[in-house]
Each structure stands twice: as structure tokens, then as C-alpha cells.
Design brief:
Layout lengths: L1 H23 L12 E10 L2 E5 L6 H8 L5 E7 L2 E6 L5 E6 L2 E4 L2 H5 L4 E3 L11 E5 H8 L9 E4 L3 E9 L12 E4 L22 E6 L6 H15 L9 E5 L19 H28 L5 H9 L4 H38 L11 H27 L3 H5 L10 H35 L9 E5 L4 H4 L2 H9 L4 E7 L9 E3 L2 E2 L10 E5 L4 H4 L4 E4 L10 E5 H7 L11 E4 L4 E9 L14 E4 L7 E6 L4 H15 L8 E2 H6 L3 H35 L1 H9 L4 H35 L10 H27 L3 H5 L3
Parallel strand pairs: 6-11, 8-10, 18-23, 20-22
Antiparallel strand pairs: 1-2, 1-12, 1-13, 3-6, 3-12, 4-5, 4-9, 7-10, 8-11, 9-10, 14-24, 14-25, 15-24, 16-18, 17-21, 19-22, 20-23, 21-22
Helix pairs in contact: 1-6, 1-8, 1-9, 1-18, 6-9, 6-11, 6-18, 8-9, 11-18, 11-20, 11-21, 18-19, 18-21, 20-21
């Protein structure tokens, strides 16, 4: 039972890990041209090193077609979420927020193999007012995708689009979560129109793809892209080069990111694969330990079989066959366990993995290979040892544990087991501690009890800002209200370099721009170290900056910055600095503190920031929704708590933290199963010894100590091996974060103490039972 259970749990865990790895490595493999497709991203070279963006300047696509005639396929796509209004035929309007709204050139669907249910892929996006929907989106809008063709939807309450095609639902393993795709030429009628010929600005989500011909190598293309940037970009920006990234790397490279906002690095895949291998290895160790421990009991059987004519190879095959039967039973149980656990795993990782043995030959092959490997790893050594017994010695019952080499081997394997388990425990403790640090770290602003509500982008809505503010503050449970481009820490930031103090050159770094009204500072409790807040205004009149920006400019005393001029975009936005605030984290804690510039600019506000009295959410949220519906009846109301938004920055880390907890628990469980089996066997083997010791006066505590001390020493040896390995691995992992916990001795101490306590609990129960047994019964047969 111990062998079957240990192997089943280990194989089930490895099977789930295989499904995760298989899913994560299958992204966008279904495109026929996947090996020739490249995305252009941007590398920014500044005083802090190299920065990355997944987007490029909008003129990149047209310029590539001219400058690289050998590249026959170029396609641009841009994501820009917004509100969709649909009349579904029942005289009712549906208002929905659509994050996955894209503008794409028709060439995009020639390059990528997304299936079609209706429409002509080559012609459906040529008209500026045409749009295609996925099947799920069409059904959400109209109830039946077949009735959607030819109907219209309204985008952002102003632009009508006619539905000219229906896409099959994209598979779950794609980094293109398409829902609505409009004609790329429609960008001429949006706020982007002024940037379509702008080589300076780079928009995240503005992708350009190319299909490289076989004779045009990626290295050659990247080399020529350096000259391409120098040719088109202004001189001071020509060092910000375009780089070609293979489609096959988009899912794994978190420097650039992708539309799905989900990357899974190669190192993470390697780590999970090693954990899966280690868990199977730990389970196999249990089998070897118990088989060698029981070898003495089977020595007479081997002797009889050899006397009756069996040779060594026949006996080895017999014992391997027994192992195979146990492994098959374990595999069957493992498949059932994995199938039962898969819904939980899908929910945790927000995936749609499935275990389909009929349509997934790789899954079948994995299970077969695991069964064969486990059979040989677990059974080969015991089979060789058992089949090698001398029949005469075996029949005389003179085979001992020392003769089969079992004691030293079992010790080594127990050390191996717990070394692996403790590496996982230490890693889990460090990951959990880092996640707790993220949750509790001070970001330099007040994030508690603040809700953010997207503000409509049209000019009419902007005229209602003052009315909204007054109505919000009329509620006694709303403490502060502010309007801004973004909250202090948010995705989708606006960055730009600038000219400082009448300089003729732009800075060699970019500042994070926070356009916000004068109430922003009180709403988020931002602290001033010099100067004052800017005065209320609808346009840029004054600037407030943070300490990091001054350090990058070489200014030591914040007071020296007051009155200095900042000039954005060649005199487009010019004003003087009137205040300096303490640093706050405007990005996630993975990244260093950013230089920040704040000013008023009503036209770009897209967020309402509302500070509420803690505990009053149930009364405040309906009030805000009612006010919203009165003020903006044509728009969808939605809100987020800021602290939850910030927590979502670390969603993947939190998911992996839970996975590590589970795998560490499984490793400990399997290891303790083996310990329980070994101590049970030892207790039986030493029954008479324990009886004699008790007759001679040994206490129960002494007997427990006798049976437990060796395992305690082995776990300490395992810790000595595992601690430096875990330190090295986790030290490298922590380097991914600018703000990180120290690798303190307390984490390692907690790992060894918890391992020993778990082992004592496992061993102690069986040891106590042996220690309190009546010695008369154990000695009666002598």
C-alpha cells in the first residue's frame, strides 16, 4: 500500500506538471508559418541600461514594405479596448466593455491561421467600417453567431462598424486573445490619427509582424534594422532600435510581454520539469528502500526457486514483473487523481488544460514512458539483489541486511529524499515570504480603501468632472475624490523624455507622466519634501516631480529644483517645477523606482480615484454606481479596489507560490510514507531486541529515541546538502526583483526544524507503538 500510494501521488504530480509544460510550450504552434513569423519590438537605450517595449512606432509597417522589398508579408495590429454598444434585436441596447478590441490589417489573417466560420479573410477588413467577431463574442452580443453577419456595433458610442466575418474561437494556447477585430484603416478616425506618422512615440500593443523568407536570416534582419531606425527616427532617438523577435519566443520573454499578459519563461519550465522528476524519484526511493529492507524475508523463497531450477535472469524478470504490476496499479490511481485535481489546477492557473488520452498521443507516450522508467528505477536494483542470493546461504536463513548492502543504500536514499524535499520547502518558504513582502510593502502612497472607476474618454464626459466631484464628496463616507490619467501604480503608463532647465537636448531617460488634478496628492497622501502642490487647472501650468527624477538630473537639494523649467515635446507642454514629493512606486516592485512628473491636463483624464471610509463599501458602491448612471448613461459602470489591482501585478507569482506549496507538501508526504514504512519494518525486525531492552530496564522514551535518532541524523545530513543548493537557486530567482527579501538564516532554520518535526511525527507514532508493546509477547517464542 505504501509503495502504490507513494508512486501514485508522485506520478499524479508529475502528470499534472507535464500537462502544464505541454500547455505552456504549445502556444501559437498551430500557425503554419510559425517558424518564419517575427514580431518587431523596441529596445530603448538610456542611462539605466536597456528597456523593452512590445510595440513599435505606427509608421514601422509601411516603411518596412518600402525598405525591405524582399519581405513579402508585413502585418500590423493594435489593441485598444473600449466599450461596445449592441442592439440585439429586442429593442434593448447591450453595453459591454471589450478589452480585446483590435485594429488589424487584412494581411494579419493571411499570416496567422485563425479559423473562419463566415466571411472572406482577404476582403473582410478592407473597408474602414468593417469588423470581425469571434464566435463566442458574436454569441455574447447577438445570441447566435449566424445572425450576427451584416449587423452593426458601435464602438465608444461614436463609430459604427459592420460585421463582415466570424472567426472560430481562438484556442486557449494562443497569445492573441481576439474578440473583436476592426479594420486597421479605421485608426485614421481615432485619437491615434496624429501618431500614425510619428516615429518618436512607441505604443505598447502596436505590433508589426513580418514573415522572413528562407534566404533572409534573423541575424541579418536585426543588423539591418539598426540602419532602418537611424534612417527614420530623429537623431536623438535613433539609438532606440527595432528588434525582430521570433513568434516562438513571444510566450517566454517577459522583457517584451504579449497580448495575453501571460509569459512563462524557459527557466520556469525547466524548474517545473525538475520538480516533476524529483517527485517521481522520491517515490522510487521509497520502493527501493522497502524492497531492500524486505529482501531478507524473501531469501528463502529465492533459495527454493533456485533449487527447483530457476536461473538469475528468470528471478530478476519475476521481481521486475512484480514491480511492473505495482507501477501499473499506481499509474491507474495516478491518472484518476490527476483527472480529479485538474479542475482545481485550471482554476488556480486560469487555464483550460484537459487530459484526453484519445486525442493526445504525447500524453499516452508520457504515461507509458513514466511507467517503464518507474518500473526500472524502482525494481532493477532490488531485482538484481534478490536474484543474486546464494541458495544454500538463503535456505540456512543466513542472509542479513548487511549482506544485501541495504543499510548504507537506504541511508543514502533517505538523505536524497529529504534533500530534495528540503530544497522544495526552502524554495516554497522564500517564495511565500517574497509574496508577503509584496503585499505588505509600503509603496509610498495610501492604497487602502480606494476604488478606481474608468472615466469615459469623450469631451462631453470631461465637462462633468466638477459635478461628479461635488456629488461624490456630498456623501459623508467618501473622504476624497480625484481625477487622473492613472492611479499612482498602474499598468499602461505614459513615459517620455523632456528638456530640463532650457537645455537644448532631451534627457537620456524617460519620466513616468502622471496627469492628475490638484486633489490627487491628498487622495493618495503623497508627501512633499519641498515646494507645494500645483494649483487647480484644466491644462498644464505647473509641474510636481519626485526625488528620483532629481537624482537623475544631479540635483541633491530638492529646493534647488523649485522654479526650474520642464519642456515636453518641443514646447508643447512647458511649465516650472513648484513642488517635490517623496518617491512612490509607480510600477510593480519588480522594477526600480521611476522618475515621475505630475501635472494637470483634463483632456487625458481617464480614471476617477475615490477614497472611502473603511467599512462603508456596501453603502458607498451603490451610491457611486447610481451617480455614474445618472452622469454617464451611455457607458458601462465598472470599478476596482486599488489594492486588488496592485495584488494582480503579482498574479503569476502567487499562482506559482501555491504550486510550490503543493509540490513541497507532496514531496514531504511521499518521503514520510517511506519513513513510516522503514520504521515499521525496523520495529518488526527489532521486536525481540526491544523486548530484551525493556526487560533490562529501558524506558519507552529510550526505545523511541533508539528508533528515531538515525532518521534525525539523516535529515540533518540532507539539510547540509540541500541548504547551499536552495540558497543558490533562490538567490538567482530573487534577482528578478528590484525589491526583495534577504535570504535570512531564519528561513533555513524553519525548514530544518519543520522537516525534523514532521519526521518525528511520522516515525514517532510507530516507534511509540513498538516501545509500549508487552515484552513478554515479543519474547514468548524464544
Amino acid at each position: 500500500m505504501i509503495n502504490v500510494l507513494g508512486l501514485a501521488v508522485g506520478i499524479a504530480a508529475s502528470l499534472l506538471i507535464f500537462l502544464i509544460i505541454q500547455f505552456e510550450t504549445s502556444f501559437d504552434n498551430f500557425h503554419k508559418k510559425k517558424n518564419s513569423i517575427y514580431r518587431l519590438g523596441t529596445q530603448f537605450h538610456n542611462q539605466d541600461g536597456i528597456g523593452y517595449s512590445d510595440g513599435v512606432s505606427f509608421p514601422t509597417g509601411p516603411a518596412l514594405r518600402i525598405d525591405f522589398p524582399q519581405i513579402k508579408e508585413v502585418a500590423s495590429i493594435f489593441r485598444n479596448g473600449g466599450q461596445i454598444t449592441v442592439e440585439d434585436g429586442s429593442a434593448r441596447l447591450k453595453k459591454l466593455n471589450e478589452d480585446n478590441f483590435y485594429y488589424a490589417e487584412p494581411e494579419f489573417f493571411k499570416m496567422f491561421d485563425f479559423g473562419w466560420l463566415a466571411g472572406n479573410p482577404q476582403a473582410c477588413l478592407k473597408d474602414p467600417h468593417s469588423v470581425v467577431l469571434t464566435q463566442a463574442t458574436a454569441e455574447k452580443y447577438f445570441g447566435d453567431w449566424k445572425t450576427a453577419m451584416g449587423k452593426t456595433i458601435k464602438y465608444e458610442n461614436k463609430t459604427l462598424y459592420k460585421i463582415t466575418g466570424i472567426l472560430k474561437n481562438p484556442p486557449p494556447n494562443t497569445d492573441f486573445p481576439l474578440s473583436v477585430v476592426a479594420s486597421y484603416s479605421a485608426l485614421q478616425n481615432t485619437y491615434i490619427k496624429d501618431n500614425l506618422n510619428d516615429w518618436v512615440s512607441t505604443f505598447g500593443g502596436a505590433y508589426t509582424f513580418v514573415v522572413l523568407p528562407p534566404e533572409f536570416s534573423p541575424s541579418k534582419f536585426n543588423a539591418q534594422l539598426i540602419g532602418f531606425a537611424k534612417k527614420h527616427k530623429p537623431a536623438e532617438y535613433s539609438k532606440d532600435a527595432c528588434v525582430a523577435q521570433p513568434l516562438s519566443e513571444i510566450h517566454y520573454d517577459d522583457r517584451f510581454g504579449n497580448y495575453s499578459n501571460h509569459t512563462f519563461s524557459h527557466s520556469l519550465i525547466t524548474a517545473l520539469a525538475l520538480i516533476g522528476i524529483f517527485l517521481i524519484l522520491i517515490a522510487c526511493v521509497n520502493f527501493i528502500n522497502l524492497a531492500t529492507a524486505q529482501a531478507v524475508n524473501r531469501s528463502r523463497e529465492v533459495g527454493v526457486r533456485k533449487v527447483l531450477g530457476s536461473n538469475r535472469s528468470q528471478l530478476a524478470l519475476q521481481f521486475l514483473g512484480e514491480t511492473a504490476l505495482i507501477t501499473i496499479a499506481a499509474v491507474i490511481i495516478a491518472v484518476v487523481v490527476a483527472e480529479s485535481a485538474l479542475p482545481f489546477l485550471n482554476k488556480l492557473l486560469e487555464t483550460r488544460m484537459s487530459m484526453n488520452f484519445i486525442f493526445d498521443p504525447w500524453l499516452v507516450l508520457f504515461v507509458i514512458v513514466v511507467a517503464i522508467l518507474v518500473t526500472f528505477l524502482s525494481g532493477l536494483y532490488p531485482a538484481v539483489i534478490l536474484s543474486g542470493f546464494n541458495p544454500i546461504t538463503a535456505l540456512k536463513s543466513k542472509i542479513t541486511s548487511k549482506m544485501v548492502g541495504g543499510i548504507s543504500l537506504r541511508r543514502a536514499l533517505v538523505v536524497l529524499q529529504f534533500a530534495i524535499a528540503q530544497v522544495l520547502i526552502i524554495g516554497m518558504l522564500i517564495v511565500v515570504s517574497q509574496m508577503n513582502f509584496f503585499r505588505n510593502a509600503s509603496l509610498g502612497f495610501d492604497k487602502a480603501a480606494i476604488i478606481t472607476v474608468p472615466l469615459p474618454g469623450d469631451s462631453t464626459s470631461k465637462t462633468k468632472i466638477d459635478y461628479m466631484r461635488n456629488q461624490l464628496l456630498a456623501n459623508k463616507n467618501i473622504l476624497k475624490a480625484s481625477f487622473s490619467f492613472k492611479s499612482p501604480s498602474a499598468e499602461g503608463n505614459w513615459n517620455s523624455d523632456f528638456k530640463f532647465d532650457h537645455s537644448s537636448k532631451n534627457t537620456d531617460f524617460s519620466a513616468n507622466l502622471k496627469w492628475a488634478d490638484a486633489d490627487y496628492f491628498k487622495t493618495y497622501n503623497l508627501q512633499f519634501v519641498a515646494g507645494r502642490p500645483y494649483y487647480p487647472s484644466d491644462t498644464v501650468r505647473e509641474f510636481v516631480v519626485n526625488e528620483t527624477l532629481l537624482r537623475k538630473l544631479g540635483i541633491r537639494d530638492p529646493k534647488d529644483a523649485i522654479g526650474k523649467e520642464i519642456n515636453f515635446w518641443n514646447n508643447n507642454k512647458v511649465a516650472n517645477i513648484v513642488g517635490v514629493i517623496r518617491d512612490f512606486n509607480s510600477y510593480s516592485l519588480r522594477q526600480p523606482m521611476a522618475p515621475v512628473v505630475l501635472s494637470t491636463w483634463r483632456d487625458v483624464y481617464q480614471t476617477i480615484n475615490i477614497k472611502i471610509k473603511p467599512g462603508t463599501e456596501k453603502s458607498v458602491l451603490p451610491y457611486v454606481e447610481k451617480l455614474w448612471n445618472q452622469s454617464f448613461p451611455d457607458y458601462v459602470y465598472q470599478y476596482e479596489f486599488l489594492d486588488e489591482t496592485i495584488t494582480n501585478f503579482y498574479k503569476q507569482e502567487n499562482q506559482l507560490s501555491m504550486l510550490y506549496k503543493i509540490f513541497a507538501a507532496i514531496a514531504i508526504f511521499i518521503s514520510c510514507l517511506g519513513l513510516y514504512g522503514l520504521v515499521s519494518f525496523m520495529a518488526v525486525q527489532r521486536t525481540k531486541e526491544v523486548g530484551i531492552r525493556k526487560v533490562l530496564g529501558a524506558s519507552a522514551q529510550h526505545i523511541v529515541y533508539l528508533l528515531s535518532k538515525e532518521f534525525t541524523l539523516l535529515i540533518i545530513v540532507a539539510f547540509i546538502i540541500s541548504a547551499p543548493v536552495a540558497y543558490y537557486i533562490m538567490h538567482k530567482w530573487l534577482q528578478n526583483y528590484t525589491y526583495r527579501i534577504p535570504l535570512s538564516a531564519s528561513i533555513f532554520l524553519l525548514a530544518i526544524v519543520s522537516s525534523i518535526i514532521i519526521a518525528w511525527i511520522t516515525v514517532g507514532q510507530r516507534a511509540i507503538k513498538a516501545a509500549i508493546a508487552n515484552p513478554v509477547k515479543s519474547l514468548r517464542t524464544e
